Every structure is written in C-alpha cells, then in structure tokens.
Amino acid sequence: MLLQNIVDAILAGERDPAVLAELRDHRMHASQEIVQKSLVGNWKHEHLFTLKQSRQIHQQYRDSITACDAEIEKLVVAFEPRVDPAERPLPPDRKENPRKRKKRGAAR
C-alpha cells in the first residue's frame, strides 16, 4: 500500500515529515519535498484516534477479503468445468479500453 507505511509510522509516534516522507512508495510521482510538506501535521489526539480506528477497520476488511479469496479458491478447485477450454476457448475481450472511452453526449 502506498500510504500504509506512513500511517503506521504516524501511529507509532513518528512526527518528523522528513522521516515520514522517506517511507513513501517509490512509485509515487510527487517529489520528496512535496511529500514532506504534505506531512506537516496538526497531531491532535482525536485525529490520531480516528486514524488508528480507520487503520484497524481497513486491516479487518483486508483480512476478510483474504479469507474470502481463500474460500473461493477452495471452491474453484472443486468445480468441474462443463466445457473443455482447449476445445472451445473464450472469445477475445471486446470491451473498449476504459481510458479511451468517449464521454457521453460527445459527437462521434
């Protein structure tokens, strides 16, 4: 996760924006300086409490999703296909690239 390390460090007590900015994901396009400026905070107790609660709920959801994925994998293994995909493969995907979709109402 992009911000998970930063959030975990904040919850562990780290407040130095330079240290927090070092934890950013390498794929983040913002510069070190921009990230560092965005991590200057007002560390009120109620905000940190809410952040902690949100982080815990997020982790609970991730754990639930992982459990669901494992259960689905168990069920898929037991599934007997009715058609041999080697004999009758799926047709190619005909959906447009979502980034290239035309806006509704645009002239064609």
Total helix count? 4
Sheet of most strands: none
Number of strands: 0
Q: What letter string, H or E per element, gives the SSE order?
A: HHHH
Query: In what range is the share of β-strand residues?
Result: under 5%
| Shape designation | elongated
Overall mean confidence score, pLDDT:
88
The Cα radius of gyration reads: 23 Å
Q: Can you walk through the features of this model?
A:
- The structure is a single chain.
- By secondary structure, this protein is an all-alpha fold.
- Among the domains are: 1-41, no CATH class; 44-77.
- The protein contains 4 helices and no strands.
- It has helices at 4-11, 17-22, 32-38, 45-78.
- It starts with a helix and ends in a 30-residue tail after the last helix.
List keywords for this structure.
elongated, mainly alpha, 4 helices, single chain, 108 residues, 0% strand
Task: Describe this structure in a few short sentences.
This protein has helices at residues 4-11, 17-22, 32-38, 45-78. The chain is an all-alpha fold. Among the domains are: 1-41, no CATH class; 44-77.
How would the blueprint of this fold be written?
Elements: H1 4-11, H2 17-22, H3 32-38, H4 45-78
Helix pairs in contact: 1-4
